[in-house]
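Q: Hi! First time doing this. I have a protein sequence and I read that you can turn it into a structure. Is that right? Here it is:
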Amino acid sequence: MAAAAPDLREHAIARVTKIQAALEAKHKGSPAEAGARAALDVDAVRAAVAASRPARDIAAIVQEALDRLAPHVAGDGADPRLVTAYNGIVTLARGLDGLPVKAEYLLVRSSTPGGELEYAHPRSLDWRRGIGKERSLGSLLQYAPTGELRREIDFCSYRWDTEYTFGAQAVGGDNVKGIATFDVQHPAIAKVTEPHRVAKGRLNRHIANGYVAEVSGIGEDGAPVRVRSYYFRCKRRMLTINVCVLERGDPGPDPEAEAFLESLAEG
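A: Yes, that's right. Below is the predicted 3D structure, encoded as structure tokens:
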């Protein structure tokens, strides 16, 4: 009996090895593995950038990461954590100039409740609906991956047949420049560092020419705050629309926010 022990031990080891191999095969390419690998892929891309690796090498890492996640993010029922990871890699790739890889966001397409505006933003746990302010058509909140609130986006409307009061100033709802000039109340700013200024401008190629107002300052928490508001006419609905983007901190260029702003169009 004693002589048979080594054979039993080897058999047991072989069986455990077989089971482990089966489990690895079963979970290889699983959502859990894809999520874990996504974090490593982001680290790999950043390390390659820090090491000044050629753009083609960085692009290969990005493409491999996206390809690995792609089967797990298709469809509306995909795990939101994996979709967030996928779009996070797209954001990282778009932030690198000259990277030879075509990385498209997975988007949520939506509109204001009355259909005044249509828009899209990356599908992500970092994008959420907000409450909105007076005359609001809707609101979006964009958070940083670390959890801090990065942007508050609010959609407001002014009827052309109505007069609005800003402080002591009365302005007609069809007076786009007047609204842009006198709509200066921004509670998030405790101290103004760059005063309210207005210039002709255009939100994107889908939206009519209008005015852009901007003011910068310091919030109650001491962090920088910038408010940029786009005002334009929506002729089909006889409204003046305001898309107000409030940025907290110093987020810098953001491909996700740029994709959202570029998507905006009249409904």
